[in-house]
Design brief:
- The protein is α+β, with helices and mostly antiparallel strands.
- It has 2 domains: 2-115, PAS domain (Beta-Lactamase, 2-Layer Sandwich), CATH 3.30.450.20; 147-379, 4-Layer Sandwich (Phosphatase 2c, domain 1).
- The chain has helices at 2-11, 31-36, 47-52, 59-74, 117-146, 150-154, 195-215, 221-237, 334-344, 349-364, and strands at 14-19, 25-28, 83-88, 94-103, 109-115, 159-165, 173-180, 183-191, 248-257, 262-268, 272-276, 279-283, 290-291, 303-306, 312-316, 324-325, 330-331, 373-379.
- It starts with a helix and ends with a strand.
């Protein structure tokens, strides 16, 4: 009968441990060899504490905790709540067990342990994910705080439409605006990457634009881009930096003089589109990004365009045109995007935003979003 009993214990997916009134382990079930890698004789007496509990600073502490429970047993107090502990194995790892405790004969304590390692791992993964989510939510709060309000973004224009759809919780795309008197400044910036790395770059870029345009009073678009490039190069690749970072951004920057009816535009790998009287004209940016190309002397060009009431002016990141989808899983592409802008330009601005969103979703279907998406449209 004893052999049958031991065979049953060997197959159980739990540990059975008996601790006497002095805190010595007098019995360890045979399943310990399968579950922990120790032979039962290796864990009797004080060996249980020194072998399985060496993952804590003082293995004797665990024995002290058990002695406290033994005193409760001696006092006739019922032990109901399970106790969870992580214990070491002979395999070189550790496992988590939940212990159900009950009183045994002669003041002993019977511990039945259930392996909960998988559950604890999932709990830890959840804690990490929750921590990351809280960090992302905090980053999003900061990022949203730097974005200008719709009224500030509108500046001297009659109205503005914004279609902003980050790929992740936070974005590598952002928009910027500033107005002084009858002159307003607007920018769409597409920073390296997306998610948290991209978001960090947006905060840096926002601070640099404020410093260049507002504090240093550099307002000609091509000069703004040059100053931004110099500032970024100094920040991430300046003297004392042992590793050259390949971080940067594309930007479309425009200056609108409402009284003169003129828009001056400069871009770094980003264009400006103007739709006037049903005709679309694209003004391409310079073939340099902000940052990168550390040893190249860059020349940013600008163009000045006369605009009139009801004209539409668009600046945007590359996320919309680069979205994969359609029947063949290809990119939406620049031509289709410009055709889309031409088709929506005479709609009410809120309808434009809704149509841009609908068209992107219709193109994507089941494809994941490829990149951050940002489109700004200004009505003169």
């Amino acid at each position: 009968m004893l052999r049958v009993f031991n065979t049953v214990l060997q197959q159980l997916n739990n540990l059975v441990v008996v601790v006497d009134s002095d805190g010595e382990v007098t019995y360890v079930g045979p399943s310990a060899e399968r579950m922990l890698g120790f032979k039962t004789g290796e864990l009797l007496g004080d060996k249980w504490w020194t072998k399985t509990c060496n993952n804590i600073a003082d293995p004797a502490q665990r024995k002290t905790e058990v002695n406290h429970l033994l005193k409760q047993v001696a006092a006739g107090k019922a032990i109901v709540a399970p106790v969870e502990h992580r214990i070491n194995t002979a395999f070189g790892d550790s496992r988590w067990f939940s212990w159900n405790l009950s009183a045994g004969p002669d003041g002993s304590l019977v511990k039945i342990g259930y392996d909960i390692t998988e559950r604890k791992q999932k709990e830890q993964e959840m804690l990490i994910k929750n921590k990351e989510l809280r960090s992302l939510e905090y980053a999003r709060t900061i990022q949203q705080a730097i974005l200008p309000s719709a009224e500030k973004l509108k500046g001297g224009f009659a109205d503005v439409v914004t279609f902003y759809q980050p790929k992740d919780v936070v974005s590598g795309d952002f928009y910027w605006a500033h107005t002084e008197g009858s002159v307003s400044y607007s920018a769409v910036v597409d920073c390296t990457g997306h998610g948290v790395p991209g978001a960090l770059m947006t905060i840096m870029a926002n601070a640099m634009l404020k410093d260049i345009v507002i504090k240093r009073k550099i307002t000609e678009p091509k000069e703004v881009l040059s100053a931004l490039d110099d500032e970024l190069q100094q920040m991430i690749n300046g003297p004392g930096k042992s590793v050259k970072a390949n971080d940067g951004m594309d930007i479309a920057f425009l200056k609108y003089d409402k009284n003169a009816g003129l828009i001056t535009f400069a871009g770094a790998f980003r264009p400006m589109v103007v739709v006037s009287d049903g005709q679309l004209t694209e003004y391409r940016g310079s073939r340099y990004p902000i940052g990168f190309y550390h040893d190249v002397v860059k020349q940013f060009d600008q163009v000045t365009v006369a605009v009139k009431p009801n004209d539409m002016v668009y600046i945007f990141s590359d996320g919309y045109a680069d979205q994969f989808g359609g029947e063949e899983g290809k990119k939406f592409n620049k031509k289709n995007f410009k055709d889309l802008l031409l088709s929506v330009n005479d709609m009410e601005l809120e309808v434009q935003r809704s149509f841009l969103e609908y068209s992107l979703l219709n193109w994507r279907q089941k494809e994941p979003q490829t990149d951050d998406v940002l489109v700004l449209g200004f009505k003169v």
